[in-house]
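Batch 3, record 17
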Amino acid sequence: MNFFDADFLVGDGPKPSRFPTGTVGEVLAQMDHFGIQRSLFRSAAHAWSIPDGNRLAASFAPGEARLVPAWFLVPHHAGEFPSPEELPGAMKRAGVGALVCDPALPFSTRRTFCGDLFAVCEERRIPILMPAPDYPGYEKCDQVLCEFPKLTLVALNGHSWGLARYTWPLLERFPSFHLALGPCRVSGEVQETVKRFGARRLCFSTGAPR
Amino acid sequence: MNFIDLHGHHGAYVGFPMPRSSTPEMIREMDRHQIATLVLSPHRALIEPGSNGATAEILREASGRFLAYWVVHPHGEGRFEREIAAFEAARALGFVGFKFHSSLHQYPLDGPRFEPWWTYADAHRLLVLAHTWGGDTRCGLENCRRVAEKWPNVRFVLGHSGYHEHEAFARLAGAHEHLYLDTCAVGCLDGAIEAMVRIAGSEKVVFGTDLPWFDPGYLMGAVKYSGIREEDRMNILRENAEKILAPLR
Ligand SMILES: [Zn+2]
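Prediction for the assembled complex:
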């Protein structure tokens, strides 16, 4: 089996890890240990700077087909992020596969702040990954999708227990809503979700090495 | 089909929908993961005092695939004599010991109301599963240590191996002959199974899933990828539990 991990963190964070992922070699060794063929990754540097994190993600493993960088999205107005016009070209040049929109960061995802970026992502089908570490995370997904219902939005699930109440309504209402499973582990939950919505709506994601 | 799971539950639960919580659904999951036997305490018995009798019906329904813990509730007076008689009467159906949940019931594992139960379990060498959690003052390391020292003949499984403090719990388990760690939930922590085996030995770790909470595959994967030897894996998945249960069935 070939796995594509939708959420992998590279670079050294503030906490020590048993599985270092500071270099391309270390990341690939980790992926090999678990039989993961490709990973979409974010950079640990995103924890201290969005522009630096995006720059370091793009330069972490250029030309390594197994590692696809993701950028963090923030409003472009302060010059921290490409403008809506520049974004598709900039992503292509840097080999960036998706954008992470983290509602925990200090910015608003409402239309005034991110609307132009979301509009171009909706039109070009650029995937937006939205961390949902707690249940209100799904309310954020709902809020963005109500304004941009065709946005390819992938919730990065951070929950262990009971996804159905939160994700099934979103899966039902928005055909472009997807779910990266993360630590989802309730007996039968993945199977029942696939039965109702099909496996195409779900992604495998580890959140490794956390 | 030969694995044994010493930590399960049963039935619907208030927190969230559990798609595999009925007897036939749980048995299908066990079949899929080659689990021959599951020892469980139903959610109802955990929440509602005096409802262990309903567990008997579940045991009948599962025709041999389930064994059960009698859930001990701390609140209410004069319950021990009455309940122990009911426990003994139902034992042949597949009750193998007691379950304590000091966090849920907000009563310390080594508190006086539980003493007659521990004394009874010690005298009859029963299996006891207790929910344990690092830092919890009702079911933390010191509560478990006092119990293990006072009642050394109980087959005492430290549920969740004192999550967050599994290394200290492993040292405790390593020092007491009848004390065991389980994989339930704690197995998901990076490096935990390997550390428990290194500190306490694989003879002191049993397999637990919390089915129908966890998909058993999740914890089997944790055992499989933990980096321990095949022989250690088999101790965890079967051998230890088999030895524990043999005199109780
Ligand atoms: Zn449990």
